[in-house]
Structures are given as C-alpha cells and as structure tokens.
Amino acid sequence: MEQKEEQFKEAFDLYTDVLFKYASFKVSDREQAKDLVQETFMKTWVFMEGGGVVDSIKPFLFRTLGNLVIDYYRKRKTVSLDALAEDGFDPGEDDTEGLLEKMDGAIAAKLLTDLPPEYGDVIFMRYIESMSLDEIADATGLTKNAATVRVHRGLQKLKVLFEHER
Questions:
Q1: 87 and 121 together in one domain
Q2: Which residues neighbour 21 within 8 Å (Cβ) at sequence distance 6 or greater?
Q3: What is the pLDDT of residue 37?
Q4: 105-114, 124-133, 140-149: which has the minimum mean pLDDT?
Q5: Which of 124, 103, 104 shows the shortest CA–CA distance to 26?
Q6: Mean pLDDT for the chain overall
Q7: d(CA 136, CA 143)
Q8: Which of 60, 109, 112, 130 has the fewest CB atoms in 10 Å of its CB?
Q9: Using an 8 Å Cβ cutoff, are 121 and 66 in contact?
C-alpha cells in the first residue's frame, strides 16, 4: 500500500469524529455536518492523488473543512419560520428532566457561537479538540504567535460574554 494511501486511511480513522464535531458546531445540522466531513476527505484525497503533499494532515483537514463551511454559508439561503412550519417543523414540548444540563450546554454553545469566528474557531480547536498551537496555526494559516494571541483574546471575550450572561 502506498504511503499516501496509508496516511489517508489513518487520518480518516483518527479524525472523522473530531471533524464531525467541529462541523456540527459550525453548521448546527448533523446531516450537513456529515456531508461537509465527507467532502473534506474527498477533496483531501483528490489533492493527494494529484501529487499534492500534506506534511501535517490534521491541520490540512481542518483548513479544508473550514473552507467548506465558509462556502456552505455563502450558498445557504435563509429559511423563514413560516416556511419551516409549512414543511411540518414542530419543535414540540420537551420534558423537564435534565433541563438544567441542556441549558448549560446551550449557553456554552451559544457563547462560543457569539464570539467572532476568528476567536470561536481557535477556542474550539484548542479546548474542545485539544489541538496544539502549532496545529491551530497550520489549520488557520496563522503564525503560531498570532494563533496564541487569538486564543488569548478569544478567552477574554468569552469571559466577558459569560459575565454578561450571568
């Protein structure tokens, strides 16, 4: 088996779940997140098969996925609540068991999504996905120093949002 094929298969096994969590966080739609992850791996494979060299696969995958998320939002059309209701969308009533846990999770997700993307993305990569600053720099195209500054500033902004939320 060729080295690039082995590298690709290993990356698929190691990073599919991580990329799915990131995509789900960014688009809030499981099926769309699955599609974006699948497209990420397809584009990566095409790049590698075309002779492209990937030195560090995890940051490469995150950068590819990030670009696909940007494309997704550029193409996405807004949907009104009326249109959703016409299609049969009904949020229904939820039971109250575990409501506080759900609310805490919702508040945390909301706070992350309320951050500007340049901060929310690096906070997600650093603290949710445990990526190193070097990996974040590679994934975002920033220098390591710039990635460090964004993480620090993002944490400051997150702290302000948290205090305001209280």
A1: no
A2: 128, 129
A3: 95
A4: 105-114
A5: 124
A6: 79
A7: 9
A8: 130
A9: yes
Dist CA 54 CA 48 (whole Å): 7
Structure tokens at 76: 């996405």
**Domain CATH number, residue 38:** 1.10.1740
Structure tokens at 132: 């190193």
pLDDT for 28 equals 82
Total domains in the fold of the chain: 2
In single-letter form, the type of residue at position 130 comes to: S
Beta-carbon neighbour count of residue 92 at 10 Å?
Answer: 5
Q: What is the spatial distance between Cα 163 and Cα 5, in angstroms, rounded to a whole number?
A: 48
Q: Are residues 110 and 142 in the same domain?
A: yes
Domain that holds residue 75: 1-92
Rounded distance between C-alpha atoms, residue 69 and residue 90, angstroms: 27
The answer to whether residues 39 and 78 belong to one domain is: yes
Same domain, 61 and 137: no
